[in-house]
Structures are given as structure tokens and as C-alpha cells.
Write the C-alpha cells for this entry.
Amino acid sequence: DDDDDDSSLMDSSEDSRRRRKSRKKSSKKKKDKKQKKKKKRSSGKDAAKEDAEKDPIAARNYAVVDRLYDLMHEHPGLASELPIMLIRMTSGTSFDLRQMSDVSAAQGLQNVFASMSSLGVTKESSGGWTWQSPGAGTDELFLLRLTRSMLNQVGLTMEAVDDYYGMNNEKQLQEAKPTANAKSAVQNETLGLLSKFKPSMDKDSNPLSLELIALCRMILEGQSISLEGLPDDNLRDAMEDLFAKAGLEKSEMVDDD
């Protein structure tokens, strides 16, 4: 019986050792899996950095293009001014961006110029941004050509940027035309009404233009006005046409009890 007890104790201890080993193996596998996942994540994050290290010129170009995109997105009006600035810079002009009234635009230009440091764009001790020629054979279009080349490399062109904002501006103009036309119609109607009825008014009465101003102020204050009291039917009809063109609605007025 003692032998049986001893053998059962040995079996149980052996089983416990096996269980401990299996637990160690499973935890080790889990650690290995976690480490592999971490390696995959880090490799994904570093992929762009490795590409940049392999091709520093491409990395520089993309950095410049990113700054240009941010600038044009926030300040599309600079799309026409920046090429001129680059030409003047290569001609020896220095730009002190601190003199700009638009702080946001100045910061955007500073980011662009800073990204072009490898192209010879530097910041002087006085605070101005200037360009140092890398050598002989460069002309005033040097920076502009390089910028266009960078944009072309990433599938963009200065013309495409200009066209994009040009289309947006054209769209805004088209949307503004109906409003401008409506204002013009109201203005013409008002001038016609004033010129037609002013001569027929009594000398002691107020000018019709002042009456119109008073009526418009009342409407802007939320009051309703009635033209029924006007003795001149033609004047009343003309003013109703004017108010209709201005977008006002005619409704029946109810007398208070």
C-alpha cells in the first residue's frame, strides 16, 4: 500500500511539473506573439521614415509640397503671389514676413520657406527670408522651376492649383450673380420711381426718397406698413412693385379691436 501511495505521489508531482511546463510554454508563445505584433506596428510606422532615408530628395520634395498644400488650402489668394515671390527671391529680394498684416499667411509662408532650406532659402539674422545661389548657371526662375518639378513629381501642378481655385472663384461669382441682379433691379426700380414721382410732389411735403428711407427702416424693425393711404394710385402701384422686387410679401392687415 505504501508503494502505491508513493507511486501516486510521484505521478501527481510529475503531472504538476508537466502542467507548469505547459503553462510556461503557452505564456512564452503569447509573449512571442505580442513581440511580433509590436514589430509589425513599428515597421509600419517606420516605413515612411525608411523610404525617406532611402530617398532624401523625395522626402524633401514631399515636405515642400505638404507645406505648399497647407498654405494654398488656408490662403488660396497666395497661389498667384507665391510664384512672383520666388522669382523676386532668386533675384536677390529679401522678404521680412513679420511685416505682413495677416499673421496666419505669414506663418504659412514661413513654413514653406523653411522647408526649402536645402534649396538655398535661408533666414537672415535680420529676420528676412532670402535665397543663396548654389552656384553658377542659375537664373531668376530657378526656385519656381524646382517648385513646379516637385509638384509634378507628386502628381500636382501649379496650373491645377490655380484652376481649382479659379473654378471655386467662378462658382462663387455665379452664385453671387442672382443676388447682384436682384439688387440691380431694386436699385433701378427705386431710381425710376424717384425720378417719375418727385416732380409731381408738393413743395411743402417731404421728398419721396426720405419717405422711402423711413418706410424701409420701419420694415427692418419688423413693422408692417400699409400703402392704402397713398392718394396717388400710380405711386402706390409703383411702390408695391418695388417692394415685391425687394422680396417683401403682401398680406392683409387686420385692425385691432
Summary: Strands lie at 121-123, 129-131. Helices lie at 2-54, 56-74, 78-90, 103-115, 142-153, 158-197, 208-220, 233-245. Residues 56-156 form one domain.
